[in-house]
C-alpha cells in the first residue's frame, strides 16, 4: 500500500496532516507572542510607560542598539498596541505556518533590519518602539515567499494578502505624521530578504544526484512536467481533485 503522503514535483513529501500540524504550532506561537506583548504592555502602563522610554531605539545613540530586539515588544499607548495586535497575529501566523524555527530566525532578521533603519536614518532625538516593523516584515515575507519556494498555496496566499493589504505600504513612505515610516520600510525590506534567505532549498537536493549519475555515465531518466505535478498535488491536498 502506498503512503498517504504525496510528493511534489520537487521531491519534497508534504501531507495535509503535516501542514495542519505546522499551522497548529504557528497558532500557539503567535498566541504566546501576543500574550507576551500584552503582558509587557500591562507592566509598561503600570509604570507610566517607563519601559518604552528606557528601551526605545534612538537614532545615533549607541547605547540603544541592543534595544533593537526589545523595542518591537513595547508600545506607547493602548491604541498603539490595539492597532498592531490584529495584523501582527494574522501576518505572523501566515509567516510561521511553514516552520516555526524558520519563523524565529525571520523575526530576528526583521527586528534588526527595522531597528537598524531607524537607528541609522531617523532624525532628531525620537524614541521608536512598536511591533509595526515586524508586521511589515511578515507582510513582505508572506507576499513573496511562494515565488522563492515555488509553492502554489503560498503564492496564492501572497497574491491575496498583497491585494488586500496593499494600503499598508502607504505608511512605509515619508510624510505620515507620528509614524516611523523608516521602521516600517526597514521591516518590509527585512521580510523580503528573509523570503530569499529562508527559502526552501530542499528542491535542489536532486541536483547532486543528477551530477552523480553524470559522473558514473548512467543514463538519466526522463523527467515529468514538474510544474503541472505541483499544481495537481496542491489541488489534491485541498480536496479539489
From TrEMBL:
Recorded topology in the membrane: Multi-pass membrane protein
Residue ranges annotated for the Peptidase S54 rhomboid domain, each copy included: 68-199
Alphabetical list of SUPFAM superfamilies matching this protein: Rhomboid-like (SSF144091)
Biased composition (Low complexity): 210-219
Location of the region described as Disordered in the Swiss-Prot/TrEMBL record: 208-228
Chief location bin: membrane
Cell compartments where the protein resides: Membrane
Record's keyword terms, sorted: Hydrolase, Membrane, Protease, Transmembrane, Transmembrane helix
One Pfam entry name: Rhomboid
One term under GO cellular component: membrane
An annotated GO BP: proteolysis
Top-level taxonomic group: Bacteria
Keyword hit for rRNA-binding: no
InterPro entries: Peptidase_S54_rhomboid_dom, Rhomboid-like_sf
Transmembrane segments: 26-43, 55-76, 88-121, 127-148, 155-173, 179-198
Coiled coil: none
Similarity-based family: Belongs to the peptidase S54 family.
Name of the protein this chain belongs to: Rhomboid family intramembrane serine protease
Amino acid at each position: 500500500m502506498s503512503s498517504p503522503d504525496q510528493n511534489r514535483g520537487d521531491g519534497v513529501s508534504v501531507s495535509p496532516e503535516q501542514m495542519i500540524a505546522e499551522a497548529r504550532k504557528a497558532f500557539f506561537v503567535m498566541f504566546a507572542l501576543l500574550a507576551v506583548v500584552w503582558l509587557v504592555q500591562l507592566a509598561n502602563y503600570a509604570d507610566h510607560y517607563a519601559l518604552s522610554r528606557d528601551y526605545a531605539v534612538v537614532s545615533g545613540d549607541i547605547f540603544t542598539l541592543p534595544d533593537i530586539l526589545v523595542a518591537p515588544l513595547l508600545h506607547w499607548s493602548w491604541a498603539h498596541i490595539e492597532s498592531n495586535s490584529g495584523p501582527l497575529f494574522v501576518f505572523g501566523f501566515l509567516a510561521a505556518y511553514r516552520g516555526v524555527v524558520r519563523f524565529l530566525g525571520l523575526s530576528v532578521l526583521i527586528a534588526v533590519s527595522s531597528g537598524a533603519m531607524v537607528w541609522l536614518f531617523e532624525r532628531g532625538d525620537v524614541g521608536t518602539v512598536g511591533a509595526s516593523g515586524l508586521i511589515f516584515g511578515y507582510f513582505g515575507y508572506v507576499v513573496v515567499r511562494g515565488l522563492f519556494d515555488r509553492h502554489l498555496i503560498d503564492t496564492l496566499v501572497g497574491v491575496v494578502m498583497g491585494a488586500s493589504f496593499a494600503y499598508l505600504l502607504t505608511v512605509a513612505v515619508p510624510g505620515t505624521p507620528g509614524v516611523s515610516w523608516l521602521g516600517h520600510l526597514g521591516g518590509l525590506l527585512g521580510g523580503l530578504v528573509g523570503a530569499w534567505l529562508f527559502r526552501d532549498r530542499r528542491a535542489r537536493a536532486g541536483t547532486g544526484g543528477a551530477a552523480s549519475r553524470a559522473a558514473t555515465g548512467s543514463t538519466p531518466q526522463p523527467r515529468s512536467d514538474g510544474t503541472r505535478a505541483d499544481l495537481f498535488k496542491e489541488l489534491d491536498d485541498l480536496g479539489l481533485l
